[in-house]
Amino acid sequence: MRRWYVIAALAIAVAAVVAVGAALAVTPPVVERAGETIPSAIAPVPATPDTPAGVDDRLKRDFAIQTVPSDAATVVSEDQAMSTAVSKWEGYAKTAKTTTVRHVTFTNSGFAALTDDQLAGMGISERPQDLDTWMVTFHKVALHMHGPRAQSRSGSLDNFVVFISTATGEQIQACGFGPVE
User: Fold this and answer.
1) In a domain, 66, yes or no
2) How far apart are CA 43 and CA 174, in angstroms?
3) By residue range, what is the domain housing residue 56?
4) 3-state secondary structure of 98
5) How many helices (H) and strands (E) does the chain have?
């Protein structure tokens, strides 16, 4: 009978060793950097419509707009750009849960094939390619929708983005997208 107890105890010990080994095999290694311990496999923050990466992804996918952070000198200040965006889009500015401003280089590749006359007809005075802009984003607003689909979207929250030239202070482009969770 003691023999069975010994066999059972050995089986439990082997199972515990296997379980600990399996747990260690899937745990990421730890890296020492500058005196602090940091797990090497930190999960990245997902790109949601409310993060800069999420906004940039939606602009690229839905509007053929690419943005790249910029550190170029500006004539128009961040506050002036915000003021321009708020005055042009007062309804969105008032209802936004948050508003962010980023300094970016703006390119709309969807407009690349248009002539200057066609762009002027759309009210665009500068060719939208590698323009230094302030990107003002009104987060979680109710976009003004028209047509049959507008009824099904009532109450949804969206982002509205306004690009303001850092050289002239004029609005380059504005667009909205959503819904935002």
Assistant:
1) yes
2) 33
3) 52-177
4) strand
5) 6, 7
Residues forming beta bridges with residue 57, ordered by sequence position: none
Structure tokens of 125? Answer: 């005075």
β partners of residue 48: none
User: Does residue 35 sit in the same domain as residue 57?
Assistant: no
* Spatial separation of the C-alpha atoms in residues 156 and 53, rounded to whole Å: 21
In a domain, 8, yes or no: yes
Is residue 46, in this structure, part of any structural domain at all? no
- What total of structural domains would you count in the chain? 2
User: Per-residue confidence of the chain (181 residues) as pLDDT tens digits?
Assistant: 667 666 766 667 666 655 555 554 444 444 333 444 444 444 444 555 567 777 888 888 878 888 899 999 999 999 999 999 999 999 889 988 889 999 999 998 888 788 889 988 887 777 888 999 999 999 888 776 665 555 555 556 788 999 999 999 999 888 888 765 5
Same domain, 95 and 149: yes
Q: Does 165 fall in a domain? A: yes
Q: How far is CA 135 from CA 11, 77, 81, 131, 138, in A?
A: 64, 12, 8, 11, 10
